[in-house]
Design a protein that fits this description.
This protein has 89 residues and is mainly alpha-helical. It has one domain. It has five helices and two strands. It has a two-stranded antiparallel sheet. β1 and β2 form a beta hairpin. α1 crosses α2 and α1 packs across α4. The longest helix is centred in the last third of the chain and has 15 residues. The protein is globular, with a radius of gyration of 13 Å. It starts with 6 loop residues before the first strand and ends with a helix. The model has no long low-confidence stretch (mean pLDDT 74). It binds zinc ion. Zinc ion (ZN) binds next to α3. Zinc ion binds next to α3.
Length: 89
């Protein structure tokens, strides 16, 4: 699925994706958040798709669009989070 998945900061690109739902939900532990951030910041592969979380968030959006019922409270928080990320410089 990903062209050149690599391991950076102890996580592979797919590991980062696997943690995103918890990340947007605020359920991700501090250590995991740090690992995700370290990966995205240092991974050329992820950086190629955009800056910082742009790529992963887009991927999550696409994923959510194809998944059925998402808890509305979670969806609302995700939309808020996505809006914040989008408005970053
Ligand atoms: Zn990556």
């Amino acid at each position: 699925m990903l062209p050149d998945e690599r391991e950076v900061g102890g996580l592979r690109c797919s590991d980062v994706l696997a943690r995103l739902s918890d990340y947007v939900d605020g359920d991700l532990g501090e250590a995991d958040v740090a690992m995700v951030c370290a990966h995205v910041a240092a991974c050329d592969n992820c950086a190629r798709f955009g800056t910082s979380f742009t790529w992963v968030l887009d991927t999550v959006r696409e994923h959510l669009a194809s998944v059925d019922p998402l808890d509305e409270a979670v969806a609302g928080r995700l939309r808020d989070r996505l809006a914040q990320e989008r408005h970053r410089p």
